[in-house]
Design a protein that fits this description.
Layout: H1 30-34, H2 41-77, H3 82-111, H4 120-148, H5 152-156
Helix pairs in contact: 2-3, 2-4, 3-4
């Protein structure tokens, strides 16, 4: 089996006494190590974890955020019945909550990356990733604020 959760315990994967474990990975090359402050493979591994987390967020959540923004804009400019307004608004707010929950998971993943003080590049990358994710949260929250501060009569006008 391939371990997909870095936080899982070995016993939760069915590994116990007398089990054999095969570790696989790639050794960073000199070009990869030049991108780190220390030239350390450990720092490179932290940078890779940070990059993978942000790339996953970009791939999975940016299209959803753009769709939410488009749907909210359409909703705010359309004239609908009060029943349609309530259903659509509720669905958009639910989408907001789903996206925010995923962005918070990204922040928790980044919070789990502990960079020693000497790993300046990894610390910088982590800081940038947190700021980027927080910017996405602000972006999604602004859509929710627009939805919450618009009454059905304002939508119709």
């Amino acid at each position: 089996a391939i371990m997909k959760d870095d936080t899982a315990t070995l016993s939760s994967l069915g590994i116990g006494p007398s089990s054999k474990v095969l570790l696989m990975g790639t050794k960073p090359d000199d070009k990869d190590l030049v991108q780190t402050t220390t030239g350390s493979p450990e720092e490179h591994a932290l940078i890779e974890r940070i990059s993978q987390s942000i790339e996953k967020t970009r791939t999975n959540l940016i299209p959803q955020i753009e769709s939410l923004e488009t749907s909210a804009s359409t909703f705010l400019s359309n004239q609908s019945t009060n029943n349609d307004i309530d259903k659509t608004k509720s669905k958009l707010i639910d989408t907001h909550h789903y996206i925010i929950e995923n962005l918070m998971q990204t922040l928790l993943t980044l919070d789990d990356v502990v960079c020693p003080p000497e790993f300046e590049t990894a610390r910088k990358k982590r800081r940038e990733a947190v700021q980027y994710t927080q910017g996405l949260i602000d972006r999604v929250d602004s859509v929710k604020d627009q939805l919450l501060h618009t009454s059905p009569t304002e939508v119709k006008n």
